[in-house]
User: Fold these one by one.
Assistant:
Number 1:
Amino acid sequence: MKKIVLLLLVAAAAHGAALPEATQIDSLLAADWQKHNLQPNATAPDEVIVRRLYLDIAGRIPTVEETRDFMKSVDPQKRTKLIDKLLASDGYTSHMFNFWADVLRLTDNTKGKITAEAYEEWLKKELKANTPYDQFVKKLLTTEGGAWDSGSIGFYQRDENKLDHLAYTVQVFLGTSIVCAQCHNHPFDKWSQKDYYSMAAFTYGMDTRGGGVNEIKLPKRPEGRQIPEALAKMSNKERRQFMKDHPEEVAKMRKEAAASQTTASSREDMQQVRKALGDVMKPLRYTAITWNEGKLPKLPADYAYTDAKPGDTIEPRAMFGHEAKPKEGQTTVQAFADWMTSPENPRFTTVIANRMWKHVFGNALIEPLDEMTDSSVASNPALMEYLTQLMIEKKYSLKSFLRVLYNTDTYQRMASTQEVALGEINHFTGPSLRRMSAEQVWDSMITLTKGNVDGEVDDENQRLHQYLGDLNMFITTMKEKGPEGIIAAAKAGMEQRKENDRELDAMRAKIAEKGTTSPAEAKALANAANKLRRESSNELLVNLIGEERAEALIQGYRPNKQENKRPRLDRSVMATLTKEQRKDLVRSAGNNTMVSRASELPSPARPGHFLRTFGQSDREVIDNASDDASVPQALTLLNGPVVESLTSPISLLSQQLNKAGSNDQKAAFLYEALLSRLPTNNERAVLSQVLNERGDQAIEDITHALITGSQFLFIQ
């Protein structure tokens, strides 16, 4: 034990005074090593640490300049200072966005694309602001309103099925898989199907169908039977109760409404109004959610257990720990959020501490990370308990917690190359050797091609906010106008819409007479229908909010994703090229997708994209990314468009190589750029031989060899 403690003291002195919390973690690990007769890994040198820190915290390799600045520094605190610098950088925001996008299954390939994009931006802002994790989770669970109020509503919009959403919520934040209990009692855990529905009852009142025409309370009956405006503004539950308690007042209101009614004169007219509004309100679909207190789930018709009956309404009840009862003025979902994030919750804090440990060291103390049961035991129970308390002491600041982990002597040791077999215990004599994630590979390629682009990570999409503001204005105007004003605006163009319908009917009849429909005729009919529908909806929109305000909504929202940006061509570089080379360069630049970090691209990338080839999650399952090697990955690195961008004359790496001097100096520079170190003596001997045999062609060969090699693709 004394020998291990001495090693820890020497290592701590090598990189400056350690944080007391980091020292405590090292001590708990050292006790475990002593118990199992293990030795810690050797201390990692600066060239390993600088690359590891940039990849683990900022999600990319360092630039040559960043590496050189770190290597030449003699400050004993330089590692701690670099950790602080990277945790405060936009690179951290970008990298952690990719991490949480996987965990939360965040995707913009959903019905509510506008809400999804607002959700992405909201997540980046929360990460950049270092919102305490417990507050972050509370915001997600209690969010309400429109996407213009908060992009966090995307959390509930992600899954239309409320029961499925509850299973994902429990798995992410409590590390407990209860999905089996949705259909039957859990076969491997204590959770019953009724337990599942009791948990689902906490969030069942969240209505994700809001934002469309249902937001507008239009009368459903012809003249004389309209719902008075005062009643129309109530929820269905409030309206039923009011009508039951005040029948005479309701009759009087209906009589007054009928006397003043001048719009909805027939069922046919109301159908036309609803049809017209349906088209106009399409942009608002999936852009808002509302909480309905008291709305509870019912057990399915095939419920087969004796503790309840099929169709029974289930009240909310917490799975474990203290009760989750609403305090005065609280809703059920607010009480659920308080229960979920409480330090007294037996799993909430442990799960996030365990998740962050795995993020830093490659393996969790409790595995599988999101299948925790009452019988789960950490590989180092004392360390798990300490990390749980540390998270509470840090007030759930993930940056503060990660800062401690990165400053441990154990993290700053050489990586463990021996894979821990399933069922065996990881004693963490150092971090695990890991292949870069798909996003880390991509962002490292971006760094080689363009340099440090962390500052280009968007934290606010002005175009998105402008459009969300337009939608908010639209729904507010509609509510201000009320049913009468909306119906009047709709009836103003009703005859034209009816004429459009007659024109479409005539086209359909003409095609039907022929008996068969060619693809061209079907396409022409669809185009004509869309054109007439757009004309009708645009006219109604103008009648509702005015021509000037309607213009932005008519144009619609066009995502400002970075994937379609074209790189700028350096004129000084262009001037050194021949005419044919310039043509080739312009052509390749037009096809160049290496322009932005992964966090700024569609989320997830489309199938076949570099990111998906390298294992980016499809966001259908929690934390579904893969780091498995494949033949397509090798082919992509050998001759794909990404390598073409990297070796293009306009790439930063190519320009730096041109200034490097001799071929020997260029080869050494490649090692610095890709591996953050200079070649060893043995490597120099091999490089010298290759350079003598291949001449200028050798530089391209060395580039390909390094990019496809494990030293580049793995976090050492």
Number 2:
Amino acid sequence: MVTATDQTTEESRRELPAALPAATIDPDESADLPAERYFNRELSWLDFNSRVLALAEDTSLPLLERAKFLAIFASNLDEFFMVRVAGLKRRDDTGLSVRSADGRSPREQLQMIAARTQKIVDRHARVYLESVQPELDAAGVHIADWDDLSSSQQDRLREYFHNELFPILTPLAVDPAHPFPYISGLSLNLAVTVRDEGSEGGEHFARVKVPNNINRFIRVDKLRSAGERTGSDDGHQPAIFLPLEKLIAANLEFLFPGMHVVEHHVFRVTRNADFEVDEDRDEDLLQALERELARRRFGSPVRLEVGDDMTEHMLELLLRELDVNPADVIQVPGLLDLTALFEIYGIDRPQLKERPFVPKTHPAFAEGETPKSIFATLQEGDVLVHHPYDSFSTSVQRFIEQAAADPHVLAIKQTLYRTSGDSPIVDALIDAAAAGKQVVALVELKARFDEQANIKWARKLEQSGVHVVYGLVGLKTHCKTCLVVRREGSAIRRYCHIGTGNYNPKTARLYEDVGLFTAAPELGADLTDLFNTLTGYSRKHEYRNLLVAPHGIRTGIIERIEAEVAAHRAGDPTARIQLKANALVDEQVIDALYRASQAGVPVDIFVRGICALRPGVPGLSENITVRSILGEFLEHSRIIVFGSSQEYWIGSADMMHRNLDRRVEVMVQVRDHRLTADLQEIFDSAFDPRTRCWELQPDGTWTASPAAGVEVRDHQRRLMTRSRRDSDSGAAT
């Protein structure tokens, strides 16, 4: 976690448009709200991951999609422990008595998490062992045990073991001359007990690390002889996989010759991946971050996963040597680390997957089959793109690539939070700098788990002549903005992109996001001011058409919520609040929504993950509905609608403390009625009574909706159909 510095400048109130009634924000009003009005955010996150698991249980989905959701669940849980549980343990260990919004201490939360996690892990394992794996077997995709294989298959695997695997394995003994080895986070390991053959002597412990630089699953049916495999998978022959740890376990005798293997068990350690960089003390942020990343490898254990067949003796040894609390042990039936099912998902079995969706070029950016200049398009008006339904490569990526190649473009200014390993965005910025354009890239080095990649990009950009900055001290720069300055005759014109998602072509095919393209002069001026703040010493907090955190988003949102209350009390039937976000945790925003509900304002919330707001409580939130939709794409856009003023805002900020207080975030108002109609359609589809979703209940449970027997619509599939229709219509014109 990065330490945020104190903000010494007083938050200034953004002047509201005349169309909005004046609102007075009084934080003391929250004192009248009930104390138990928030759900615990950590348990709410576990509920979210349970909804991911429910997709793996859904037999109406193609089989490999269900396997993929098992892998996503496991990956999510890893990160939860590395960050959220690690943070709670640090606060508990240091005696910080900071309580959660629902009044629980760090220790109380850790106890609840431990109990809930064991139950959800058991359920996860059952879905794999009792449903997905048997159905994969029936479909000709076998994840085998050693004893399931024929003798000829075992012979080929032993040859593979000796020629390709044995040379890279390193068994590590533990005795007075060999201390207990360091166990890296998330690595898979075999704990082995051996003793001398023909001896009554004592037993000895050894650890064998399962290599993580080769595939977890060995394709048995493709093995011929050492290093030789058959051709590509034709999709018809049975595919047989053996987990790597099972091959090692079956051949332990070769790692310990002359010894008798008494027992072996698989285990996995999760380590604290949270860390702090003191930006006030460290003069070189890049070097300081590299130093802390090196320390991350040695974070303290926060979870120990073991097979449910592990003996008490072996478990006690691991607890002692790893210094792990028994409460941090998770027993896993079956295979550990099902993130490896991503490998199984990658096989060529299209009949077991959803039909691939191919994004279409937004009609505004094409004339038939011919790409259209994005600059010419934006001279005609604003464009709203909705990924992945609208292609990222032919909109956002093409915008930056055209800017890099256009001789009339003078400057490109870009924020980069996360991008792909092979980044055409970075390549375009490098090309622009080589062409003599002024190029500024704000690379956020502190993007969690992408720090190393961003350090690499920062260095590459700097070496290519791009002006690279790292943002503001104490704040992560999380906004998604690009500004292109272009000479057109005797005038200078600015073109902007402001989005909700990262400049990452790979995730743009998987994440649902929206973005605004515009050449509106006032927005160009706003982005110019913002970049001057990010790169220089400007302390500007007021903008014409933007809300900017950490000074303006929470205040701006609450003012508009209060304006909806005032409009409703004045008899305006259009007063309504609709909010779409990844998470809703911020207490001030939640309390403002409670007050709106108490005043009779309808509130629709479309949240993917955490929701600390308690809906449907009489006298508090009976006018609030909370829905969650998970599916083929990860719902990621942030959109807020205020009905009486017909204001539509999109941006990068979730309703969380970190976004509103410790990050630079941007929200922009979409004004064009053609575009706001597209945004409204997202909410209309999500809150259609026939749309498949989960609804949050007052007691914190999530119930599947609609009820059995009701016609069901899929929100994302509906938008895919619309995308194809709109694209075909645009091509026809």
Number 3:
Amino acid sequence: MSQITPMMRQYLEIKADYPDAVLFFRLGDFYEMFLDDAVKASRILDITLTSRNKNSDGADVPLCGIPYHSAGPYITKLIEAGEKVAICEQVEDPKSAKGIVRREVVKVITPGLVVDGSSLSPKDNNYLLSIHNDDGNRWGLSYLDLSTGEFRLTELDSLDAVVAEIACVGPREILLPSFFRDNGKMKELARATAGLVVTHVEDWVYDHEYCRRLLAGHFAGASPSSLGCDGLVSGLYAVGAVLHYLQETQKGKAAHVTSIKAYTNAEHLLLDEATRRNLELTATLAEGKRKGSLLGLMDRTTTAMGGRKIKQWINYPLVTNRGITDRQDAVEALLQDAGSRAEIAALLNGVYDLERLNGRISLASAGAKDLVAMKDSLARIPAIKEVLVAFSSNLLAGLNEGLNPLPELIELIERGIVENPPFVLREGGIIADGYNAELDELRAISREGKGFIARLEAQEKKRTGISSLKIRYNKVFGYYIEVTRTNLDSIPADYIRKQTLANAERYITPELKEYEDKVLGAEDRIRDLEFSLFQEIREAAAGHGNLIARTADCLATVDVLVSLAELAHENNYCRPKVDDGTNLAIVDGRHPVIEALNQGERFVPNDTLLDNDENQIIVITGPNMAGKSTFMRQVALIVLMAHMGSFVPATEARIGMVDRIFTRVGASDNLARGQSTFMVEMMEAANILRNATPKSLVILDEIGRGTSTFDGVSIAWAVAEYLHDNGEHAAKTLFATHYHELTELSVTRRRIKNFNIAVKEWNEQIIFLRKIVPGGASHSYGIQVARLAGLPLEVIERAKEILVNLEKGEYAEEGIPRIAREKKATVPTSQLSLFQNTEDLLRKRLLSIDVATLTPLEALNLLDELKRMA
């Protein structure tokens, strides 16, 4: 636009610096949006789009706006739509401004940097995650929750590990270097970043010296070594990008981000993306909801901090005996003392989200109600400490020591802030009476203006002896003392003439002038002074940020331990023995979530024994719906819970330390990436075979079902052999299958054992007994399960006829299977064998073999096939 107003010129200049954000441009009591921002925002926010001054071409300039004091819900809606919002405020008083009021962007709100409590899920973190890779094998990851101050850093050695970590962290926004676009990294990360807000950071930010300066600047001169980041080059770049982005968007230092925690994969039991999804750790597969997941069952916490902490424990189970034992000791102590457990839970129930309150205070976005919530929460800590002091558990004692009620901060807030302050800071009514003498006087003037004038008038009449003396007010002269001309001889020396009238003179005194200055601007001065005093209190609270953060973390941990003790009490869990051995022995294990759902039948517990000597691979057969998947998942969940330090759903459990849990479960595809169900299945299996170790636990729920029968059996057989024979990857494995041929592996492989889910047949019906028993199943009972599912009777009967034809290998004279020609009703005899056939087919098969090209594995499979055809 060639002809634009100074205000629009200012808008366009500021907007040019924030092209990817919706600019909230402050005009008086409104945030205005113009041009493309207005069109976009009006659609997302469902507000009226209008227009104002036309540009040089005569076209309208789109415009929409919202009241500044109620911007919160609108910002939330834009953030949820994946937009960024730049807040542009008036940074000088319009009354004193010469020309256009100066405006600046004071902060940028992005999906990964939300701090407003109404925009956040209380029990979920809101992470901004940064990724860096310099074309080497090391990937640096760093993530920050600005609302709580949690800041973490790690380095990983593969893209698969990066994808798994992204799935675990669950960020709202990801920072990537701009050069990722050119070198193909974006394509590699496409699956992990799908649906997330991705922000590309300029390449110059990834300079080693610049990142070191950012780190030192934020953490008071600390070096990468002192922060535990020494040697993490790619990780340092990831951290630098976060700090740079924080600096650019928040326009100030986030003082509550006081430390960064570097960690490695070796510190935790590893769970890849497929395992988290298949075990439904934090969300259900079907609906993606917390309810029905392991987290939904285990989270009995009463605080938002505790809710986030227990989710973190599920995502990052421990692999150190000391850490696990300390947690178990604490849970056991709380389990044995129901009274203290209930008392702590009741006290925690009144504790607000100290982590996020601390974050908002540090970022100067906290209101008066936040400070009162902080005070009320801290006030509960002495009572919590009094209960905890009775426990001898190392962990509980350490947590008690870390709790600091900060009495001086409680006293400051209690003395300075009213008990029930308003939401809006600029409207006054925040600071308590008696906190500040000037404010008390201003309030007295505001409340008692007429009384003050009356008292002053009486005082002056008495002092001068002029009974007709009047104190009056008008808009031109303000307050004045009016004396008739007949009394001019009695005027005191401190009276200052202000105006002469025909019959009177008007005067002011220093006292009246002082009062006038106060009373005329009393309301404005009250609001300004209250806000200033509030800021002082808020800054004082921010000075306690480190202690508040430590206290909040201790309270969250106490909350989780109480929650785990309550869970164990309600569900009769046992304390598992976790050691460095190789055995995994569970007596009467149950699936924690399914047991709690209480679906109308008593949950049948089952024993489990896995080791690396005799029972490394358990092949489990049995019909669908019998409980194979439930059994295998419950073993994995019990192992994970034990590594969390939780008690587990069993009568007894001994868990040898596990380094990773892998699952290959069910059928799924990824059509967006051109991957079929079978391709996804094979990719997941490949990941397991590459990364499993003898300390891993592998859950295989069907392998090879997505391709032809012969191919499927061959792949499943070879996978089982590989896990058995390859010492480097010989993981403890539960292998459920409908390929009954796999039960023959136990004949040639010493550490493979067969088990099946027991069923009972009655009147052509099957009854699921839900019990795992030794041996392989003799039937798949597919047709019986189909009957239970409600297939039409005609289909069931025809299926039985076809099954008999296939089992007996019945063919017509011309070699066409009888099932393609006619129905042949007979009585079923035995389970279908995939390799039965006629002598002619056996002969044809032998003639088709090229012995010279057979590999050992193919020869073994072929011999087994021919044996069955004979």
